[in-house]
Amino acid sequence: MPIDLSGKTVLITGATGQLGRVMARTLAQAGANTVLHYHGNAAKAAELKTEIEALGRACVTVQADITDFQAVQLMSENALNALGKVDIVVANAVIQYEWTSILEQPLEDYRSQFESCVLQSVHLAKTFAPAMIERGQGRFIGINTECAMQNFPGQSAYTAGKRGMDGIYRVLAKEIGEYGITVNQVAPGWTISEKDRENNSEHQASYSQHVPLKRRGTDQEIANTVLFLASDLASYITGAYIPVCGGNVIPSI
């Protein structure tokens, strides 16, 4: 059964990132008009916009600091002026930093993860949910991580931010579900991206040997899960945390 998102508009934060760009292409291929958020990579955003418009979809690029509420509101205004509405919000952006132990991790890294995981989610909900409530439909899809279940050494700031994000998404699912809006999370494992293909680093035996499917997932497999959650096929799924990691982490019941 093909997925058709014709007439829908999706906003993807961090759309120029390794996973974001594949999500953008995939949802556009399914018919969605696209709002491409970026923070600093204007050139990649413009390149991606050209790709999506070549598919016959409307597309706009918007620059914003997703940790700044006023910047997110301005991003929304620019998106609405260009495309009229946003039906699907994919929260993919996150601040990158160097991982180390809790005792050595700079405090600023904990702040950056809180701001880019938790506050981004709050900013997007406050900005885009009211119009979805009025229309009686909408989708929020957060990109979480398998690390939120692993809690391995060195992951503390990232795990803390993503576990906080998980709390926001679970509560939001209960608060706005009555309006026909679903709120879900996709949790990738260590995913093969364009950068891996360029660097011939797709195969990481030390990681894959612990994965039940014995391989790393791909950026396209992450995008496919996002596409499913964005579609009517997932109309009765909300509040879910869905690992896309070959079984490397398995939520219990």
Q: How would you characterize this protein structure?
A:
With 253 residues, this protein is of the alpha/beta class. It has one domain (9-243): 3-Layer(aba) Sandwich (Rossmann fold), CATH 3.40.50.720. The protein has helices at 20-29, 42-53, 69-83, 107-135, 147-150, 156-176, 194-199, 205-208, 219-230, and strands at 9-12, 33-38, 59-63, 88-91, 138-143, 181-188, 241-244. The longest helix is centred in the middle third of the chain and has 29 residues, at 107-135. Belongs to the short-chain dehydrogenases/reductases (SDR) family. Pfam families: adh_short_C2. InterPro entries: NAD(P)-bd_dom_sf, SDR_fam.
Strand order of the largest sheet: 3-2-1-4-5-6-7
Average pLDDT value?
A: 97
Q: How big is the Rg?
A: 17 Å
CATH class: Alpha Beta
Order of helices and strands: EHEHEHEHEHHEHHHE
Q: Give the overall shape.
A: globular
Q: What's the number of structural domains?
A: 1
Determine the CATH superfamily: NAD(P)-binding Rossmann-like Domain
Distance between the termini: 30 Å
Total helical elements: 9
By CATH, the topology is: Rossmann fold
Q: pLDDT below 50 for ≥5 consecutive residues: which ranges?
A: none
Percent in helix: 40-55%
Strand content: 5-15%
Main sheet: strands, sense, barrel: 7 strands, parallel
CATH architecture: 3-Layer(aba) Sandwich
Question: What structural category arises from helix and sheet content?
Answer: alpha/beta
